[in-house]
Design brief:
With 2000 residues, the chain is mainly beta. The longest helix has 34 residues, at 1593-1626.
């Protein structure tokens, strides 16, 4: 029976790129024309999920899996080496001896089974995997060798030590989990990872050094509390994987210690993405290659240089790059195009650009930071400048939103212009040339000229802050306006320092350091004040003060930093005092770093606090004092800083005392109080544990502590930190201060508990706590147990035995009282027989440990007596655990043994005992009764002779005593006759003079002990009582004769001794004196150190109470003393007159009074004859002239009187001083002192007239002023006011004494009287001005005085033009007028009239050289107004020049100066517009279009044209006016003359673009409409627009598709041949072995691999033999359909391939065949969605054969060559490009297999496939974007092993033919890089790097055919294809066929798989003749995406 309708299969070509099968059904008809025959095949694809278990796969895979090796080394103190087999086992706890893991099929596993370190001693080049599992605590020491694994190592515990010279490598992931570590150290250590790094709670210490030491081919993942120690090394990310997480940089906790990079070096063509958080690179970041770092929304902080190969190396996203290094940093790009950041922040003082740079967002420069753009262009959207932006001036700076409110712009180059613009906050010029302004300059802060020249170019400058000129300023005719608060340093006067015009428009301006020269006018336009600060101010022009003023001095003020009441101040901060003016000492001396300290007060808390040590400096400008504390402030310390009125400005104005307080920052982390406390015992077993913080706490990531996250912060263990965990639940209170830990169950009895918290929380100031832990012990809850001795039921107990009860722990009475020998008896029951028996007398004792009770019966037991012993529940342990009542019995028996042991002695006191009471008795207790050695009884009367009692020792003096012995003759008591002495040593002895009753003599014995100390310590004070004088700096000591302690027996220390001392002023009731006391190490000397020196002559009281004792409790007696401190105060003195007194009578004496008697410093007496030499008396100051005087001293030697030899001058300043030349009787010298005072005024005021007396030619409009040298008043002492000053003034003409009317005023200082005549004086007259008598405030009267002056008119007439000069928008028919302020005439004194006035006027176009304009002029009747009447109207926008020469004068012959004016008429012409793009009449596809107007425009409704509205008024269309709108955005420039439109997307190449300005949308500012303007362009794609072609996904897709196509061609040429040979072996019992078939093939790797197992009906046809039975012809067709996903770089690829293989082969003998096959194939790939594609035709020739290797084995082999021809189509913005590429292929395959036939057929096999393809170079053509492709070579290989299983089971009704397959394959693809270049840029290469790729593949299958009687064939197959770590595909194929006769067949099939596709089919086949067959089919298919698809097919075929 033919079996044509077996199920067709699906087989795929393995690809390194993820593939997926399409979800649609495809109806594919493959037609091959061969002569007149036609072959037609219908193929369907579908998938269902697997329904069969993969038993066979699991069984077979197990045999192929890597084998485990477990480290089981034994710790014997020697090194254990990796390669030693003795250290390895095949099981976790097995014995050593397994082969060491040194090969790729072995896994090395380390567990707790052996925690011994492993060391390498040779290279381990590749194992399968390394696992350090939980519990392994050892180290893997690479020891300088190479350790590599193909799979990713897992480090859960332990440490991999990558030591010097070691190399740790994996081709997979590296997992370092919590507890694990990888530590690199030493020179040459290296780590290389082939995939991702995952640090999940573990620690990685990276190699130090350069870019090849730590190579990472995947992502960097740090999370779960993991730690990355960068070790100052470089992480090199040469990523193989795109996207997230494969190439992610994931640092969950963000930057910080243990989470930062040092150097980051990114290479390769794949990207790395910041996936979760910001990162910090502490040093350099370098990116080369075409790959990039993608920031997304994350920030990158960089501490070193930034070096990128290309702008494409960095995708900023919305993140920020922060440069925060501490040394110089450079931002560099290796290519020259402008590079862009999104946001850039500069936080370092030295950052510079090496390339042009753009910031699309915000550039931020922090305070103290500097960005030097280094002559490079800078573009930014927004600048936030709090630091310094440094320019050269020649670069281009384009910033849309500039910061003019803060920061500094510095020019340091040679440019002559301001690149930043004309508005600044601070502007600093540090250039080498001349910077000339081209417009007015506005500086909102300060302007500094440090180097170079600033030339105004006759432009104005506004400055709101300071002006500092340290080089050169050329003012020209420009004006400088100070419109804020300014300090002005001119640098001096002269051409390079002077101003032209100066205006004060702000609050104040103050000169500093230099004089100022103003070459023209000075004006104050505000109410501000100009302070000269005693420096010269020269104004050459007019001075106008308006409502402002000019003052001599600016009173000093000070500003504190930190400011008053500031909080959170850094503890290491300096303090800054900034003065508004330069300051000096009030004695006129300069402030220096060496004397400024004394001016400052720095204390804790406030002015009464403790001093804080510091060092202060002052800057060179004497304006800033910097205070540097010697040490940091304490956390939250209040600091008080102050300066007194001890400094002044240059004019002598003193500063008012000022102070500030501030609080330092909180720098202390929260402290913890534990409950229970550390080391606590007896803690309840159900107790909770609490941690109480002294302030609110939070997590160190600033998140809140909650009940849900607090548990993770706490460690609770048994015993210690290594103990077992104790389960608990923790909560935190609402104040976030108290954590409560509630153990899940109670603690065990006496369990030691360990609880800890790490440094995991912080306060609100970010101060972390210190890790803390405690241990405590739970209470004892276990009852003591006891043991009897003899034990219960004992027999043969000696009759004289004692009984002991031994407890497991110390016991006490149940009332908590101590058990003693005296109370223990009551607890014991001792009876005969039992509890009811008779009592047995006894004495019980308990040992010192309170654990053993000894019961000593009063007499021996009787032999055979039963003894009952019991104790009740009467004792307990110290935890109140009472014992249970317990009893026992034993039997005594007499043992017949003689006594041969001498008695023993116990002394009391014991030997060497101390502190024995002085009245103590001494006892000698014997272990048994004693007697004298002569057997006589010892009695009270003879016992004394047996004992020796002496002082000190056996040689000491006898001590009298009485002795007695008890009735039992076992205790001798010695009673001394008197008490022992204090601390006396006592010697007691007894000789060998007594024996027991059995003649056993004792051994002589003695002891000694010491009596108690009973004498109190004595003490001595220094100084002694009543000592006088005592130096004020001396300490006080109290010395004891023996060591002392506190009376509570505690140790006396330097921290508690203060409280015992009383130190007061005068006596016990006086004021306390602060002190600090210490005690020496011997505890004998107390030293009292007063906090400050004692006061001069102070009486001091010092006392100590009875608060101390010696070690015998002998307390001291309370004691006290007083003493007197020495006199240490110098005499005080008072001057009369007082310092700064004024109005002192000129004949006054001067006195100096002292508060105590004084003498000369040589101790000699002061006398009238020697006192003069002590005094200095001068004029003005210490440098003045001497004033003669005579001085005397009074008899008390306390008053010096100085009598000047003559009176002082009027208002004379007097300086008087005395040096440090006198002292008191205690040698305390005074400090040198001085004062100044001013003598009374005795001089009358003087007056100066303006004009001065006898002046000539005074202008007639002049005012008259009288200026006095001092304030004046009326002689009656009343004030002169504006209302009465006129009474003092006479103003008249001398010619006739006629008065001149006037108004007079006097200024507020009463020094200047101003006389303002009501009208001008009469020219030629002499004016007399006189004033009456006035006086000064000292009643000095000035006599009446007068002066005269002559007046004349010398002012020319003033001319006013109308229209005014520079007027615009003047009406075209306007008249012109020249108006004079007074009557004019011709200069020849003749009158002006309408006839001659024309000749005076010039009227021209444009300027004085223009064409004349016709006019007619007239003059009014007052001869003041000339009117120029135009003959015709002026033109639009015409400039008119009008002038008059010096041709007229007033009536006083004052001729005018020639004058002119120009004005412009209004605009009456419409604007014009030019529409332009990049190229005339054409436009680049990505160009903007500009509309340039001839003048400024606005909207027709007079609204301003702006970026929000201009777009709606412009037309941009495709083709023409009626075309489709082209979307765009539009902007207009600030001048309103250029509109720029930016199309939303690029134009198409050759697109016609229509641009229009409508005629009714815009107008100029004269309402002239802009006319309609139209222009069309043709768009071109320019070669300058070309970019890297590898950025085009279609280009990458075409490259990858060619590689994929080449691989497919080899597979498609090889596989049919291999299947043919398999077919032949299966059917070697048949004669006719010809067949044809078509196979359906998918690119999806998990579908197409099944293609041999599913034969669709009518696809296999055995044919008759054309050449005889030895030869066979066969054919096989294939269709491949697939799709490859789009990714970041490559477009989606849809694949369709069809081909046919024709072969002929010959059977040589059994199982030996050879043949030849030819294959023709067409392969089509659609790239992306734009239409790019490739179409490849291939032709290959293969030779093949199968040869028996042995009886059961065989070798299949094939070798072939092929030709490729590929047509490529690429769609580009510039158009369609095409090309043709040729290729050559060579390929081979060798299969070694075997067949084992028993009950089943097993066919294992192994196969090696190899192929080589060379794609020749080619170029596509057609457009500007044509590309040259270099030659490319592709190598492919695959190694596979597999097993085929076939069986045939025959039953009565059917034949079953089950089969199974298992196969594993490894694919390797290695293609050369694709190198390409543009045809138009042939010298620029672009390289697409193609990595070598390896893929593991697994394939299993299960199936059966069932042949049933009646012509039915049933089939079922299941197959699964699995790619390593990737996709899998399951396929189920069900089929049935029915063949009622030899010519007819019906078949049915159901096909499904892992996808949601399903297919149902029915086929009918009918043989029409020997060769032809008719086929009809109905197929119905369902797809999850495309619904149902029904197909009806008819076809015919012919069989050979």
């Amino acid at each position: 029976m033919k079996r044509e309708n077996i199920i067709a299969s699906y087989r795929s070509v393995t690809s390194p790129i993820k593939k997926k099968a399409t979800n649609d059904y495809y109806l594919l008809i493959l037609k091959f024309l061969m002569g007149k025959r036609e072959f037609k095949y219908t193929l369907n694809k579908s998938h269902l999920k697997a329904i069969f278990a993969l038993c066979l796969f699991i069984f077979s895979a197990h045999s192929l899996a890597a084998q485990n090796r477990w480290w089981v080394a034994i710790d014997d103190g020697t090194d254990k080496y990796w390669d030693d087999n003795a250290n390895w086992s095949t099981t976790q706890y097995g014995n050593g001896g397994a082969s060491a893991p040194t090969a790729n099929n072995l896994i090395a596993i380390f567990t707790s089974a052996s925690t011994v370190d492993a060391k390498l001693r040779n290279n381990i080049n590749k194992i399968n995997k390394l696992k350090l599992l939980n519990g392994y605590s050892g180290n893997i020491n690479l020891n300088g060798y190479h350790l590599a694994s193909s799979q990713g190592p897992m480090i859960n515990d332990g440490n991999v030590l990558v030591t010097a010279g070691s190399f740790f490598q994996t081709w997979g992931w590296l997992y370092i989990n919590s507890g694990g570590a990888v530590t690199a150290s030493g020179d040459g250590s290296r780590i290389k990872l082939g995939h991702n790094l995952s640090i999940n709670g573990g620690t990685l210490t990276a190699p130090s050094g350069g870019s090849n030491r730590f190579i990472l081919r995947g992502g960097f993942n740090l999370y779960g509390g993991g730690v990355f120690n960068h070790n100052n090394g470089t992480v090199t990310m040469s990523t193989r994987w795109r996207g997230t997480p494969g190439a992610a940089i994931r640092i969950d906790a963000g930057p910080g210690t243990g989470r930062n990079f040092y150097n980051l070096y990114k290479s390769g063509n794949k990207h790395a993405t910041l996936s979760t958080n910001d990162i910090e690179v502490e040093n350099d970041i370098t990116i080369i290659g075409v790959g990039s770092i993608r920031a997304q929304s994350n920030n990158i902080s960089v501490g070193g240089d930034w070096t990128l190969n290309s702008w494409k190396n960095f995708d900023a996203g919305t993140g920020k790059v922060i440069f925060n290094g501490s040394s110089a940093q450079t931002i560099s790009w290796l290519t020259n195009n402008t590079r862009k950041f999104k946001h850039l922040q500069i936080s370092n003082s030295d950052v510079s650009l090496a390339k042009n740079t753009g910031i699309s967002g915000t550039l931020t420069i922090d305070s103290g930071a500097t960005l030097d753009i280094n002559g490079k262009n800078l573009t930014a959207s927004t600048l936030v400048n709090n630091g310094n932006l440094q320019l050269s001036g020649s670069e281009t700076v384009s910033i849309s939103t500039k910061d003019t409110d803060s920061g500094t712009i510095t020019y340091d180059g040679t440019a002559t212009g301001l690149a930043y613009g004309n508005t600044y906050f601070n502007l600093a010029l540090n250039s080498t040339g001349t910077m000339t302004l081209d417009a007015d300059l506005d500086v909102n802060g300060s302007l500094m000229i440090s180097d170079g020249t600033l030339n105004t170019g006759n432009n104005d400058i506004n400055v709101a802050g300071n002006w500092t000129n340290s080089d050169s300023f050329i003012s020209g005719t420009g004006k400088v306006t100070f419109d804020g608060t300014s300090n002005i340093v001119t640098g001096g006067t002269g051409d390079s320092n002077d101003f032209y015009d100066v205006t004060l428009g702000g609050t104040s301006a103050a000169q500093s350091t230099n004089a100022i020269a103003i070459d023209n006018n000075f004006e104050i336009t505000s109410s501000g004040t100009w302070y000269t600060n005693c420096l010269a101010m020269t104004v050459s022009g007019n001075t106008t003060t308006g409502s402002g003023s000019i003052a001599t001095t600016l009173s000093p003020t000070v500003a504190f930093s930190p400011a008053n009441s500031a909080t959170g101040v850094l503890v290491g901060s300096n303090l800054i005092l900034t003065f508004n003016t330069a300051i000096r000492n009030t004695n006129d001396s300069a402030l220096t770093d060496s004397n400024v300290d004394s001016l400052i007060t720095l204390k804790t808390t406030n002015s009464s606090g403790s001093d804080i040590a510091f060092d202060a400096t002052i800057d060179s400008d004497k304006k800033i004092i910097t205070i540097n504390p010697d040490s940091d402030f304490s956390s939250l310390q209040a600091v008080y800083v102050a300066i007194g009125n001890t400094v002044e400005n240059s004019c002598g104005t003193a500063l008012s005392a000022a102070s500030a307080t501030f609080t330092s920052a909180d720098t202390a982390g929260p402290t913890i109080t534990w409950s229970p406390a550390n080391s606590a015992t007896g803690v309840a077993v159900d107790a909770n544990v609490t941690l109480t913080f002294n302030e609110a706490a939070r997590n160190i990531d600033d998140s809140a502590l909650t009940d849900s996250n607090i548990d993770s912060l706490i460690t609770l263990k048994a015993t210690n930190s290594s103990g077992s965990d104790i389960a608990f639940d923790a909560t935190i209170d609402s104040d976030k201060e108290v954590i409560t830990i509630n153990p899940t169950s109670d603690f065990s009895s006496e369990q030691v508990i360990y609880v800890a918290i790490g440094a995991t929380v912080e306060d609100s100031s970010g101060n972390a706590n210190t890790a803390s832990s405690i241990t405590f012990t739970a209470i004892d809850s276990i009852t003591p147990t006891l043991t009897f001795s003899p034990v219960n039921s004992s027999t043969n107990v000696a009759i004289d035995s004692n009984i002991t009860i031994t407890f497991t722990e110390a016991i006490r009475n149940t009332d908590n009282s101590i058990l003693t020998d005296s109370n223990i008896d009551n607890l014991i029951t001792l009876k005969t027989t039992n509890s009811s028996g008779s009592n047995i007398a006894f004495d019980a004792t308990i040992d010192s440990g309170k654990k053993i009770i000894t019961i000593n019966p009063d007499s021996d037991f009787s032999s055979e007596q039963v003894i009952y012993i019991a104790i009740g529940t009467t004792v307990e342990d110290d935890a109140n655990n009472a014992i249970s009542a317990t009893s026992g019995t034993f039997t005594a028996r007499e043992i017949g043994v003689s006594d041969t042991t001498a008695p023993t002695i116990t002394f009391s006191p014991a030997d060497l005992a101390t502190s024995i009471a002085k009245d103590s008795n001494i006892t000698l207790t014997f272990s048994e009764a004693i007697r004298n050695t002569d057997n006589s009884e010892i009695t009270n009367s003879n016992v004394g002779s047996l004992v020796t009692l002496k002082a000190t020792n056996s040689s000491g003096n006898d001590i009298a005593f009485n002795a007695s012995i008890d009735s039992a003759k076992s205790v001798i008591t010695i009673n001394p006759s008197s008490d022992f002495s204090s601390e006396q040593v006592i010697y007691i002895a007894i000789g060998a003079t007594v024996e027991d009753l059995y003649d056993n003599v004792i051994t002589a014995s003695s002891i000694s002990f010491t009596a108690i100390d009973s004498i109190s310590p004595t003490l001595a004070f220094d100084p002694i009582d009543l000592e006088n004088p005592v130096p004020v700096t001396d300490n006080i000591t109290i010395t004891f004769n023996e060591a002392i302690r506190n009376i509570d027996d505690s140790t006396l220390t330097s921290t508690n001794v203060d409280s015992l001392i009383s130190l007061k002023d005068t006596d016990e009731n006086g004021t306390d004196i602060d002190f600090n006391a210490t005690i020496d190490s011997n505890k004998k000397i107390i030293t009292i150190n007063p906090d400050s020196s004692l006061s001069s002559e102070q009486t001091v009281y010092v006392a100590i109470g009875a608060t101390l004792e010696d070690d015998s409790n002998n307390a001291i007696t309370a004691s006290s003393i007083t003493f007197v401190a020495a006199d240490s105060t110098a005499p005080n003195l008072d001057f009369t007159p007082a310092d700064s007194a004024t109005g002192i009578a000129v004949n006054s004496d001067i006195t100096i009074a002292f508060d105590e008697v004084i003498r000369n410093t040589d101790d000699s007496a002061l006398t009238d004859s020697n006192v003069d030499t002590l005094i200095t008396l001068k004029t003005t100051n210490s440098s003045g002239s001497d004033i003669a005087f005579d001085a005397v001293i009074d008899n008390s030697k306390q008053l010096i009187t100085i009598a000047p030899s003559s009176d002082f001058s009027s208002e004379q300043v007097i300086y008087v001083a005395i040096g440090a030349t006198v002292e008191d009787a205690s040698d305390n010298a005074i400090s040198a002192s001085s004062i100044t005072f001013t003598a009374a005024d005795s001089t009358a005021p003087t007056v100066a007239f303006v004009p001065p007396d006898a002046s000539n030619c005074v202008p007639i409009s002049s005012n008259v002023s009288l200026t006095f040298n001092e304030a004046v008043r009326n002689p009656n002492d009343s004030a002169i006011t504006d209302s009465n000053v006129g009474n003092l003034i006479t103003l008249e003409y001398t010619s006739d004494s006629s008065p001149v009317a006037f108004t007079a005023t006097i200024d507020s200082d009463k020094k200047i009287i101003t006389i303002n005549p009501d009208s001008d004086f009469v020219s030629g007259e002499v004016v007399n001005v006189a004033i009456e008598s006035v006086e000064d405030s000292s009643n000095n009267t000035m006599s009446a005085t007068s002066g005269t002056f002559c007046v004349v008119d010398s002012t020319a007439p003033v001319l006013t033009f109308s229209p005014a000069n520079s007027s615009t928008m003047v009406a075209e028919d306007a008249d012109i007028t020249l108006t004079f302020n007074e009557e004019i005439r011709l200069i020849n004194d003749s009158a002006l009239n309408n006839t001659n006035v024309d000749g005076l006027i010039t009227l021209k176009e444009t300027d004085a050289n223009g064409n004349d304009i016709a006019f007619d002029a007239t003059i009014d009747s007052d001869n003041k107004v000339i009117t120029v009447d135009l003959v015709s109207d002026l033109s639009s926008n015409q400039i008119v020049y009008v002038a008059i020469g010096a041709t007229v004068e007033d009536s006083y012959n004052n001729a005018i100066t020639a004058d002119s004016a120009t004005f412009t008429t209004g605009d009456s012409l419409p604007p014009t517009v030019e529409i332009e793009a990049v190229i005339t009449a054409s436009i680049a596809t990505d160009s903007d279009i500009t509309f340039t107007f001839s003048e400024k425009i606005r909207l027709v409704n007079d609204n301003e044209a702006d970026n929000t509205n201009v777009g709606s008024l412009i037309t941009l269309k495709d083709t023409g006016a009626n075309g489709a709108d082209i979307p765009f955005s539009a902007t207009i420039n600030a001048a309103k003359t250029i509109i720029t439109i930016n199309p939303t997307s690029n134009f198409s190449s050759q697109q016609i673009v229509y641009a229009e300005v409508p005629g009714n949308t815009f107008e100029d500012y004269s309402d002239n409409l802009v006319p309609q303007t139209i222009k069309t362009f043709t768009a071109e794609y320019l070669k300058t627009s070309l970019s890297n072609p590898l950025n085009e996904k279609d280009v990458i897709g075409l490259i990858e598709a060619q590689i994929e196509s080449a691989k497919r061609m080899i597979v498609h040429s090889t596989k049919p041949v291999l299947r043919r040979m398999e077919f032949l072996r299966r059917h070697n019992d048949q004669n006719n072995l010809s067949n044809q078939g078509v196979k359906l093939r998918f690119v999806n790797s998990s579908v197409t691999e099944m293609s041999h197992a599913l034969n669709l009906s009518s696809l296999v046809n055995q044919t008759s033999d054309l050449f005889g039975n030895d030869w066979a012809i066969w054919s096989e067709g294939s269709v491949t359909i697939g799709e490859t996903d789009e990714n970041t770089f490559s477009s989606i690829k849809k694949i369709k391939s069809n081909g046919i293989t024709l072969g002929i082969d010959k059977i040589v003998d059994t199982n030996q065949i050879y043949g030849v096959a030819i294959r023709m194939e067409d392969d089509e790939s659609d790239i992306g969605s734009s239409g790019s594609k490739l179409d490849t035709d291939s032709l290959s020739l293969s030779l093949y054969g199968t040869f028996p290797f042995s009886e059961k084995t065989y070798i299949d082999g094939t070798f072939g060559v092929g030709k490729l021809s590929t047509d490529l189509t690429r769609i580009h913005e510039s158009g369609t490009l095409t090309g043709k590429r040729k290729g050559e292929q060579i390929f081979s395959s060798v299969l070694y297999g075997a067949e084992f036939n028993n009950d089943i057929t097993l066919s294992p096999y192994g196969r090696i496939d190899a192929g080589y393809t060379k794609l020749k170079s080619y170029s596509d053509s057609g457009k500007v974007a044509s590309i040259n492709y270099n030659e490319q070579k592709i190598k492919t290989a695959r190694a596979s092993i597999g097993l085929l299983i076939d069986d045939e089971i025959q039953t009565q009704k059917a034949i079953f033919m089950p089969n199974a397959r298992i196969e594993y394959g490894k694919d390797i693809v290695n293609a050369s890089d694709a190198v390409l270049s543009y045809v138009v840029y042939p010298n620029t290469d672009y390289t697409f790097r193609i990595d070598r790729e390896e893929t593991d593949n697994f394939r299993i299958g299960l199936g059966t055919d069932v042949l049933v009687d009646g012509g039915w064939i049933l089939s079922a197959d299941f197959e699964r294809n699995q790619e390593e770590n990737s996709s899998y595909e399951n396929s189920i194929n069900l089929g049935a066929s029915f063949q009622p006769n030899s010519t007819t067949e019906y078949s049915f099939s159901v096909i499904g798989g892992s996808s949601s596709n399903k297919q149902f089919g029915i086929d009918f086949d009918k043989s029409m003749s020997d060769d032809w067959t008719l086929n009809a089919s109905l197929e119905s298919a369902q797809s999850s995406n495309s619904g149902y698809n029904n197909t009806v097919e008819f076809s015919t075929r012919m069989s050979f």
